[in-house]
């Protein structure tokens, strides 16, 4: 059996946590629930493994609380939430918190992908752009493709919206090919981009703007 450490003090902090002291030295602080579940009290003898278990349980509880805070502000995909938690916790602790959020039905990657895709479509993003943004969030490719399949596949409306917002003045200057190229870089097909540009140029109300 390895060395043990005697718990010499358990002191409440101003933030409602509890500082743990062993052999007269501060170890770390834990939340009230973790402390209660552990049954820890002054005078107890703990092995180093037991101390690390206590620390890990407290870290997991903190990670879960932080995950709940994040999810109260906006929706997340599981990979995005995991990456954000990893900024403050180790990989194992972050994964445990994400698993708990999934168990509580607070994470649903399929629904998140659908809602995010719909939002981006409303922002006049091309299907290509939407796909790239969803994949960048760590979402499963199959879920991404399912979300895209639920969107209108005709991108003419989105292209017209982008032209109205950003490119009318360039069309008025005769920069047709540059506008088509700019739209293509955003992931719109050149064929649909040319059709939308031609539509604007043939409309007397917009051609001279």
3D architecture notes:
The structure is a single chain. This protein is of the alpha+beta class and about 210 residues long. It folds into 3 domains: about 5-105, Arc Repressor Mutant, subunit A, CATH 1.10.10.10; about 110-150; about 155-205. It is built from 11 helices and 4 strands. A 4-stranded antiparallel β-sheet has the order 3-2-1-4. A hairpin with a 2-residue loop joins strand 2 and strand 3 (about 25-30). The longest helix is centred in the N-terminal third of the chain and has 26 residues, at about 50-75. The termini are far apart. About 25% of the residues are buried. The model has no long low-confidence stretch (mean pLDDT about 90).
CATH superfamily of the largest domain: Winged helix-like DNA-binding domain superfamily/Winged helix DNA-binding domain
Q: Given the C-alpha coordinates, what overall shape results?
A: rod-shaped
Please report the first level of CATH classification, the CATH class of the largest domain.
Answer: Mainly Alpha
Helix content: 55-70%
* CATH architecture tag of the largest domain: Orthogonal Bundle
Which blocks of ≥5 consecutive residues have pLDDT under 50?
none
Oligomer state of the chains in this structure: single chain
Strand-helix topology:
Elements: E1 4-12, E2 18-22, E3 25-30, H1 32-38, E4 45-47, H2 48-73, H3 78-85, H4 91-103, H5 109-122, H6 127-136, H7 141-149, H8 156-172, H9 176-185, H10 190-202, H11 204-207
Antiparallel strand pairs: 1-2, 1-4, 2-3
């Amino acid at each position: 059996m390895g060395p043990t450490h005697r718990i010499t003090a358990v002191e409440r902090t101003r933030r409602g946590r509890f500082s743990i002291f062993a052999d007269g030295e501060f170890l770390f602080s834990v939340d009230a629930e973790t402390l209660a579940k552990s049954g820890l009290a002054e005078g107890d003898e703990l092995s180093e493994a037991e101390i690390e278990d206590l620390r890990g349980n407290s870290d997991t509880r903190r990670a879960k609380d932080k995950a709940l805070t994040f999810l109260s502000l906006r929706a997340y995909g599981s990979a995005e939430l995991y990456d954000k938690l990893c900024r403050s916790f180790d990989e194992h602790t972050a994964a445990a918190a994400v698993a708990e959020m999934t168990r509580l039905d607070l994470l649903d990657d399929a629904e998140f992908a659908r809602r995010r895709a719909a939002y981006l479509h409303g922002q006049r993003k091309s299907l290509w752009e939407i796909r790239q943004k969803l994949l960048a969030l760590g979402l499963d490719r199959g879920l991404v493709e399912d979300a895209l399949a639920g969107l209108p596949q005709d991108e003419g409306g989105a292209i017209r919206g982008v032209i109205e917002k950003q490119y009318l003045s360039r069309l008025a200057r005769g920069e047709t090919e540059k506008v088509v190229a700019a739209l293509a870089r955003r992931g719109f097909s050149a064929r649909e981009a040319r059709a939308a540009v031609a539509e604007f140029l043939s409309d007397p109300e917009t051609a001279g703007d």
